[in-house]
Amino acid sequence: MKDFIKGIVELLFENIPFSKASEEAKSKITAALKKEYLKETEHSSSIEAIAAIINRYPHIQEAAHLIDYDQKEIDALLNNDIILNKTSFKKIWKKTKRFIFIECLLLTIIISILLQWMCDFRAVPILFAVPFITMLSSFLFFIHKKHRQYTKMHDLKKINLDASGRDFVKTQYDGYCKKEMNMVFVCIAFLFYILFTTLLSVFSSLYSFYDILQQISYTISFINICLYLLFKNISCRKNIRCFFSEEKEIIYLSHLKKLSIFSLSYWLITSTALFLGRYLTKTIINYFILAALIYFLIILIYNLTTRKKLVFKNIVFNLRRTIMISLTISAIVLYQLMSMDLWLTQPYINTVASIPHEESKIDYNDENGVYTITTKKEDFKILQLTDIHLGGSFLSITKDIKALEAIYTLLKETKPDLVIITGDLVFPMGVMSFSLNNRAPVMQFASFMRNTGIPWAFTYGNHDTEAMGLITDHEFDELLKSLSYRTSENLLYPYIQPDIYGRSNQMIEIRKMDGTLIQALFLIDSNDYMDSSKINDYDYIHDDQVNWYERQVLNLSVNEGYTIPSMLFFHIPLQEYREANDLLEQRSSEVQYFYGKIGETMINKICSSEYPSKLFDTAVRLNSTKAMFCGHDHYNNQSVEYNGIRLTYGYSIDYLAMPGIQNDIEQRGTTLITLHEEGDFTIEPYRLMDIT
To answer: What is the rounded CA–CA span in Å between residue 238 and residue 223?
Structure first.
């Protein structure tokens, strides 16, 4: 019956111009003819009823009287004076859309600035935000005024369209209904994603309120895109709906309401269940992503099936557009996932017990940034860890926990008094680690070390602050300061640093109870990369860093009355490591071998900088430093003596960075340095395979 009545009405309006008035009349006539049909079927068959209606209402005039239209209203429907075709209407609609797009863009930018200021008010001063928002608001008011003036000149409600214009309007309405619905779905999903990750951060980490807001601020770019598309689609649909009856709008809004309720219910139940079960699995984010995939599959099925009931025409599947949109969304989601603070190792970290050791007195000098460790032990033990490479993503979680478990095993075995990490604590390398986050893994490692109770110090590697990393060099430095001794009594990171190249250039003094200096430990930033287009063009220890080291040695020697013993810790090996190995391979007597091997094969055997540093020659001349320790080359763990200085590669921890390294075991371990009261020392390798 419905199709028959619809067909009759379409015939009646075949030569009637398409407009708001004609669509309202069509809706009323359709409803009236349905009632007439039901009356007729009470005493005749369906075919007879249809035939009677056709005979009774052969023209629009008769049908119009059925809904109590007077002659004036009928003449208005039949008015053919000004009828626009598709081309003419598209010009008006194109300019209308231009106003809408600009208004929505300006509104989105204003909201974005407000959100950014609310989340990170330190980075966006109110003195900047207020005048900028005022200027944008004024521009928005001006554009909106122009839009209203244009609408008065070209009132869409009063426009009559021919058949081509009608088809175009219907296609536009279908498209914007679909886009609006889908953006509502996406926005609801993204809202719950923010709430879910925020709750995880609140309950699973040591974030402050400001840290939480800052974390949300990293998603603002995606929020902006969602808001703009949502505003744009809603505005376009509301403008184009003026051609259609109220009944069409009621049906659409009812449908949208039901789907929104379903979407909200789905994510409320899913997020609650996942949050309550967050401690039952190490890969909670994997389940959230699975829930998201199921959700978007439901949306896809809906678009291809149920939504057909709301459209004027069948959906045309645009393969190119679908691929482009899918790739764009995938890229945005991928970036968000790789930038996300995931505290997936925290359940394991919470189980880490304190390692019994004899605590030393630690003092910090606010004037020169020097930590002094005073020990009453005859033998003070330093453990060098290097190239830990924590990923901090849901794909690296298994390897991250393996790395922490390995470190804990080594700590229990050696029971050091101090741990020194010679770089590459984290690995924010995008698709290689599926993470760009170099913040959360550092905070988690600090939490891990705090639980062990063992003090630790850190110097930078080339990967810790990669250009693609979430936080910059400066932010990384500030993060370590916030985690340092005053708050943790655990991390010996300098609040005051010398005004020289690099970061975290620092000195740590090891003294006896009577104040005698046992050893000076220098942690020097070997920096990361040169500003060149070459891949793996490593930086070096610069002259001003070497000059600072020399001044410290000379000043200490003057103050102590003798040439003080010292050690150097850095990440990238000096060129002298390569020289020493070449001489060793030539069986030269200039080099004394102790242990380990050179096993690196991926790039070079020894990946030192191609730019020479004067650090080694300066150390030889000063006759203070008798040992240097580095990392960087994951399969190198050789220890030799060259020109009176012990050159030692630390054993790496890495399970993540090097392809297939998780399956190799001989290179994984640590280096134990024991300082004796007399100022001499011993260096011992500890391989994880020998302990476990």
So the answer is: 22
Enter the DSSP assignment of 133: H
pLDDT of the residue at 536: 74
Q: Look at residue 303 and give its three-state secondary structure.
A: helix
Shared domain for 523 and 454, answered yes or no, is yes
Domain boundary among 304, 339, 374: 339
Helix (H) or strand (E) holding 458: strand 456-459
Integer Cα distance of 213 and 198 in angstroms: 9
Nearest to 161 by CA among 82, 49, 279, 104: 82
Distance, in Å, from the CA atom of 83 to the CA atom of 159, rounded to the nearest integer, reads: 7
d(CA 484, CA 489): 7
What is the predicted pLDDT for the residue at 55?
79
What is the amino acid identity at position 422?
Answer: T
User: What total of structural domains would you count in the chain?
Assistant: 3
CATH number of the domain that residue 444 is part of:
3.60.21.10
Is-contact 479 472, C-beta < 8 A? no
For residue 42, is it within any domain?
Answer: yes
Of the segments 239-253, 431-445, 474-488, 513-527, which one has the largest average pLDDT value?
A: 513-527
pTM beyond cutoff 0.70:
no
The 10 Å Cβ neighbour count of residue 264 is 13
pLDDT for the residue numbered 293: 83
CB under 8 A, 24+ apart: contacts of 122-131: none
**Per-residue model confidence (pLDDT) at position 532:** 60
* Stretch (H or E) spanning 671: strand 669-676
385 in helix, strand or coil? strand
User: In angstroms, what CA-CA distances link 642 with 439, 546, 592, 593, 610?
Assistant: 38, 19, 7, 9, 20
Instruction: Answer yes or no: are the C-beta atoms of 420 and 521 closer than 8 Å.
Output: yes
DSSP 586-638: TT-TTEEEEE--B---SS-SS---SS--SHHHHHHHHT-EEEEEE---TTB--
Quickly state the pLDDT bin for 285 (edges 50, 70, 90).
low
| CB environment 129-141: b (16+ within 10 A), e (fewer) | beeebeebeeebe
Residue-range definition of the domain harbouring residue 310: 86-339
Q: Indicate if the pLDDT at residue 286 is higher than 70.
A: no
Residue 156: predicted pLDDT: 81
